[in-house]
């Protein structure tokens, strides 16, 4: 399961904003590993550099030196709308001259297809197959003169999830959708301002966390300081997977550090699904804290049964068949001397399609584990996400097709226990009604098309090109 993107923005005259953005994106790399990009402005023109690959692969001293200015926005992407190709890399720039601006987007809008067709009929060009370009052109097309009003107009037409950083030649904007699906926070560096998907990005560049940007809020930053504009909001729908998996455990969301919340999830699993065992381990790195929580609550010794290759990332080199057959062993390596003959509790964040978990169980058994008991922090995922997570169709979700005992048998575990929704909410220690739990319950915060396709805009782009060629 993959989250969509990480976004960043900085208004800091006199600073090397491109370099600071690079290091902030480095801290947000976990949110997307397909492409990365930075846009800057010197007050007269916008420059953008975006390519496929990890942040460290995309940028070097030469590329950063070409990105000068006082304002910058950055993006690191995992595709949830549009395929993984360079034309879909962000930030994107629309408009001309003084009317141009750049946009970086985290989320997914459910009415993008309809809006794109409307804008294309009005003559607005599209070079990508992302809903980000739909959002940008919708802002560009808004009849209002003032940029804040243009953004407000756009927010009233969009349905879905969007945390945005937007940059004109003179202003940096941070925008969060009224549901507040994806996180977005505000910080300061010296007397200047930064905006980021997660607070960990602020830590990496020496910025101080100020507050979260609220659902439905527009933040505008200029040479005159910062202004805030609020749109009317109703139901909140923060994605619960930010707490379970997506966000880094050293990030703060809703005033809470995520690390202890994940420990509490592990403790909850020990209460709900106790078992006699010799060792407890969390699957690194996302379930490490939960493994600690399970161990402390149960009194079972903690171990590192799997070591993670922390330098595994996206690569464009296709592995040969021998390497491909190793599968998950490229990412994890078991420790037979620790596991041999032991009954092991394995804590993980989630089971989605059920393709990786059997491989993990198999690794542990081949390393000599006598019993393998899986404990999962997320309740059974039975419904797909349409708000910015590349999860699966309902027919691919193993918990939608099999009972818990059937999933247990499929993954090859001796026992399987999922954390309940009530215990999960207790672990995060926040009101249940501020979260989106649709992937567990099927109760979406807004109407969605149950057969939405992440490549739908790709199809529209191809069809429009064919029509153009015919003409």
Topology:
Blueprint: E1 2-3, E2 5-11, H1 17-27, E3 35-41, E4 46-52, H2 55-58, H3 61-65, E5 71-77, E6 92-94, E7 101-109, H4 112-121, H5 131-141, H6 147-157, E8 160-167, E9 172-176, E10 185-189, E11 192-196, H7 199-204, E12 208-212, E13 217-222, E14 225-230, E15 238-239, H8 241-246, E16 252-253, E17 256-257, H9 258-272, E18 279-282, H10 288-298, E19 301-302, E20 306-308, H11 321-326, E21 332-334, H12 336-339, E22 343-348, H13 357-366, E23 371-376, E24 389-390, H14 398-401, H15 404-411, E25 415-418, H16 421-428, E26 435-436, H17 438-441, H18 456-470
Helix pairs in contact: 4-5, 5-6, 9-10, 9-16
Describe the model.
The protein is of the alpha+beta class and 471 residues long. The chain has two domains: 2-237, Aminohydrolase, N-terminal nucleophile (Ntn) domain (Glutamine Phosphoribosylpyrophosphate, subunit 1, domain 1, 4-Layer Sandwich), CATH 3.60.20; 257-311 and 320-430, Rossmann fold. It contains 18 helices and 26 strands. Helix 4 (112-121) packs across helix 5 (131-141). The longest helix is centred in the middle third of the chain and has 15 residues, at 258-272. The relative contact order is 0.12.
Distance between the termini: 42 Å
CATH topology of the largest domain: Glutamine Phosphoribosylpyrophosphate, subunit 1, domain 1
Structural class: alpha+beta
Overall CATH class of the largest domain? Alpha Beta
What's the helical proportion of residues?
Answer: 25-40%
Which percent range describes the beta-strand content?
A: 25-35%
Query: What's the CATH architecture name of the largest domain?
Result: 4-Layer Sandwich
Biggest sheet overview: 7 strands, antiparallel
Shape: globular
- State the strand order across the main sheet: 4-3-5-2-11-10-12
Radius of gyration (CA) equals 23 Å
Instruction: Determine the CATH superfamily of the largest domain.
Output: Aminohydrolase, N-terminal nucleophile (Ntn) domain
Could you list the spans in which at least 5 consecutive residues all have pLDDT below 50?
462-471
Number of helices: 18
How many strand segments? 26
Count of structural domains: 2
- Whole-number mean pLDDT: 91
